[in-house]
Amino acid sequence: xxxxxxxxxxxxxxxxxxxxxxxxxxxxxxxxxxxxxxxxxxxxxxxxxxxxxxxxxxxxxxxxxxxxxxxxxxxxxxxxxxxxxxxxxxxxxxxxxxxxxxxxxxxxxxxxxxxxxxxxxxxxxxxxxxxxxxxxxxxxxxxxxxxxxxxxxxxxxxxxxxxxxxxxxxxxxxxxxxxxxxxxxxxxxxxxxxxxxxxxxxxxxxxxxxxxxxxxxxxxxxxxxxxxxxxxxxxxxxxxxxxxxxxxxxxxxxxxxxxxxxxxxxxxxxxxxxxxxxxxxxxxxxxxxxxxxxxxxxxxxxxxxxxxxxxxxxxxxxxxxxxxxxxxxxxxxxxxxxxxxxxxxxxxxxxxxxxxxxxxxxxxxxxxxxxxxxxxxxxxxxxxx
Length: 385
Prior knowledge:
Blueprint: E1 2-9, H1 15-27, E2 28-35, E3 55-57, E4 60-61, E5 71-72, H2 75-81, E6 85-89, H3 96-107, E7 110-115, H4 130-141, E8 144-147, H5 150-157, E9 166-168, H6 175-188, H7 190-197, E10 204-208, H8 217-231, E11 235-239, H9 245-252, E12 259-263, H10 268-276, E13 280-282, H11 290-296, E14 301-304, E15 324-327, H12 332-344, H13 346-363, H14 366-384
């Protein structure tokens, strides 16, 4: 264990982050994670389970009511804990960063930015967009930058004079815990678990995530209706909550009870069972860590081909025809076709399940993410010597 004082500044602490931070605390002594409450209108909430003492909640302020612009009462914690390194969530609306840049020498800290890299909806254009210009300026002047994926790093590098302080920590979940759950489920078997969950249909699909417009769950519901019309069988379980739920439930009425809205489920083993028994995890819209979640349980992912600046980092883990399938954008018939293909071709399904699990080991394990953090931390500490 490295004896390095590190403070990780997060705006909020969703449950899927805590496992990774706990793993980091096993590598670095004196690690502190600072977070605050979400904005009032957010569907994403903080971890509710008891947390270790190195997780510190502070007050967040949202001057305009939106989560896009905020500042936190974090500097009291910085003064008390005296970290050598501060790793901060990085967006232009994080007002803490401007003070950190101004005061880092006074505090004697090295500042590492942790970021997706660019706006996934519109790309990165610092020559045309003012907020991107600020983002680039911060990237160039930080002691190091950690990107969620190689694409984010590559996009920013195109406009950067300095690049040696850029690192990648593949954004992921606590894959060790999730794959250990999958091992237990292997012992029970899919058919036994389907009986436990009350699934009598031959084919089952699952969606797990927030019910937001950019996830395009409406397309999934329409495609699933086409799938059932062709096969006469199937059930879709939608796990999650959000502002689109009422509209989606109304849309699902036409499927005669074949679509079940299970609401938000936090328990990893319960969610894991639903993913594990499924022919595929289907998320037509913006892909993020759901891909990792599904692959940990050996379940392939079906989504859509999108423009270069739509999907999140999850798309980087999908290889069409290898561990998942990508339908034509906006084409519900093609999406239904992909669902039918993976449901009825057992050899393809078995191959994709194996490849999904191999992807976790080779590309997005929690160890690979932690290694990216270690590289950036070692870099800034060596420069300080």
